[in-house]
Design goal:
The protein is an alpha/beta fold and 365 residues long. Helices cover 41% and strands 15% of the residues. Strands 1-2-3-4-5-6-8-9 form an 8-stranded parallel β-barrel, surrounded by 5 helices. The radius of gyration is 20 Å and the shape is globular. The structure holds (3S,4R)-3-hydroxy-2-oxopiperidin-4-yl beta-D-xylopyranoside (XIL).
Length: 365
């Protein structure tokens, strides 16, 4: 049974509704530009930002047709204990989306990171299967019918783990074997038959050997899933790219997307941002290079009709997650400028690059 949303969630939703309209960008916002091409555009948010940052709320309402809770649906975000669930913060995001008629993505049911402290380190197959089945059924049913797509399995491949199948050597794989991906998809399909079920992964975008190995591993995984009849509907390409890492090769990226599409799957760009850890400090130069990378990446992916959704992992530099990990932060300690808006919610060249790429995209059916 779906429970009513808590009062706090309603308050957040109403706060969203009551937000004064920002001066509308000339084209009517990125979501409108995208929708005219048959593309859904949005961003990751979290309940705290929605509560505390009115500029974020205004900008999300002006620019987005979709939101995804960035933290609240991870195990760590909603599983305080093995026998308990806490959906208060997830529900705030869901209520905000409902009140503002925004589409939603769910993120994420199975991931080797963001597991709570109590999560068993080396569970038996039976133990983990029971835990996972309850988790997926509870989350899936609670939001059934409200999510456009669910990231069912996040980051399942890691060629560096040197398994012949390219799968990541995670707690889920060790306990359940390589069939865990199909198992999780089936559990999700049962709990929420309406959502597109997504396998989501990173480092799939660039013409680098490591990305090539990851593309191969993901394609093999999707191939096996489709052959087995597992309920998978889309590949999520996270698209955490960094300017200056390697030039986007549109042919490489488009060929990969076409290979996924030829399996009957859609492709969603799920966590787009453009890091600047490799760039010199100069701000105008950094902003220009980051914008160029947005333009090149989106130019390539949006040329493929299988891509019908683009989601940024945050709209502004203000709260960038890229400042929080040693792999993504800048070595000089300066804050990253990886998102379409700066730390004061002023649009940057990256925002214009996104607008132009959306406007140039071919119209989808
Ligand atoms: C990140 C969040 O944005 C951070 O706030 C959190 O501390 C760590 O996780 N790939 C994913 C996302 O699939 O869930 C991650 O989100 C970023 C990388």
């Amino acid at each position: 049974m779906r429970r009513a949303l808590p009062r706090r969630a309603l308050a957040a939703a109403l706060a969203g509704l009551a937000a004064p309209a920002m001066a509308q960008p000339a084209e009517g916002g990125l979501a409108r530009l995208a929708a005219a091409r048959g593309v859904l555009f949005g961003t990751a948010v979290n309940a705290q930002w929605l509560r505390e940052d009115p500029d974020l709320v205004r900008t999300v309402l002006a620019e987005c047709g979709l939101v995804v809770p960035g933290l609240e649906l991870k195990w760590e975000g909603c599983r305080p204990g093995p026998d308990s669930f806490d959906f208060r913060r997830a529900d705030e995001v869901v209520a905000f989306a409902a009140a503002n008629r925004l589409a939603l993505r769910g993120h994420t049911l199975v991931w080797h990171e963001a597991l709570p402290r109590w999560f068993p380190a080396s569970p038996s197959a039976a133990e983990l299967r029971t835990l996972l089945a309850r988790h997926v059924a509870t989350l899936g049913r609670r939001y059934a019918g409200r999510l456009r797509s669910w990231d069912v399995v996040n980051e399942p491949v890691e060629p560096w783990d040197r398994r012949p199948d390219g799968l990541r050597d995670s707690v889920f794989l060790r306990a359940l074997g390589p069939g865990y991906v199909a198992e999780a998809l089936k559990m999700a399909a049962e709990a929420d038959p309406a959502a597109r079920l997504v396998v989501n992964d990173y480092a799939l975008e660039l013409p680098l050997p490591q990305h090539e190995a990851r593309r191969r591993a993901i394609l093999e995984l999707l191939n096996r899933l489709v052959r087995q009849g597992a309920p998978v509907h889309a590949l999520g390409i996270q698209a955490h790219v960094a300017a200056g890492e390697a030039p986007i090769d549109p042919e490489v990226l488009r060929r990969f997307i076409r290979a996924v599409a030829s399996l009957g799957l859609e492709v969603e760009v799920t966590e787009l941002d453009v890091g600047c850890r490799l760039l010199p400090a100069d701000i105008p130069a950094r902003d220009a290079a980051v914008a160029r990378t947005y333009a090149e990446l989106l130019g390539a992916v949006l040329a493929e009709p299988a891509v019908k959704l683009v989601c940024c992992w945050g709209l502004s530099d203000r709260d960038s997650w890229l400042n929080t990990t040693r792999f993504t932060r800048r070595p000089d300690g300066l804050p990253v400028r990886a998102h379409p808006y700066d730390e004061a919610w002023r649009p940057k060249p990256a925002r214009e690059a996104i607008a132009r790429a959306l406007a140039a995209a071919p119209v989808r059916a």
